[in-house]
Amino acid sequence: MGNNKKLVLSAIIRFSIGIIVLGLFLFLSGGIRYWNAWLYLITLAVAIFFFGLYLYIKDKELLQKRLHSKEKEKEQKAYTFFAGLSFLATFVICGLDFRFGWSYVPFAVVIITFVIMLVGFGLFVLTLTYNRFASRTIEIQNEQKVIDTGIYALIRHPMYTAAVLMFFSSPLVLGSYYAAIPMLLFLVGIIMRIRNEEKILSNGLEGYTEYMKKVRYRLMPFIW
Q1: Which domain holds residue 35?
Q2: Which residues contact 78 (CB under 8 A, 6 or more apart)?
Q3: What's the predicted TM-score (pTM) here?
Q4: CATH assignment of the domain containing 208
Q5: pLDDT tens across 12-40, in order?
Q6: Please, which contacts does 201-206 make with residues 24 or more away whose CB atoms are closer than 8 Å?
Q7: Per residue in 89-134, pLDDT tens?
């Protein structure tokens, strides 16, 4: 029971800090009337809350791994750092764009990209239902095996595809074209991370090299 309480407390703290920090970036730069930011934050908070609740009920071990994992590889630590800078720049520019009216993103575009963002989150959840080893860090876990069914039969890294859909739609959901520019750094980081991850998995996970030959595409079918 004590471990469960610690898990809940840890999840609440990380969830609260994440939403508060993101809100500060958006509202300090864009102002309290930044309606796109309210839409974005509320949706993200609700989705993460119910997903966390689902994991707590169905798979506490996976929730624990998602909360407390840290990168060990030097290349992955570098990726995490630059991804953080990319997100910071993106969200601050979004707020400044709203405050000063640099962009005009039609409401229809906001709604379409909002749906794309939800699809990305749905793909993220789907990926975890197929692969409990889909950790936040790059490592070979105990009893880990190659997953080649479901979405993994189409692309090798659906978790990253989900991230691309979610984060690349975010600037437009938040009403900014200019904020999409620093998000390109995130895409570069994703590509570097995938290459490093596949090197680690090929060397340490039995059957992964054969899986790479079987499933050609990493992020998007027929593209890459």
Answers
A1: 2-214
A2: none
A3: 0.82
A4: 1.20.120.1630
A5: 888 899 899 999 999 999 999 999 999 99
A6: 201/140, 204/140, 205/140, 205/144, 205/145, 205/146, 206/145, 206/146
A7: 999 999 999 999 999 999 999 999 999 999 999 998 888 888 766 6
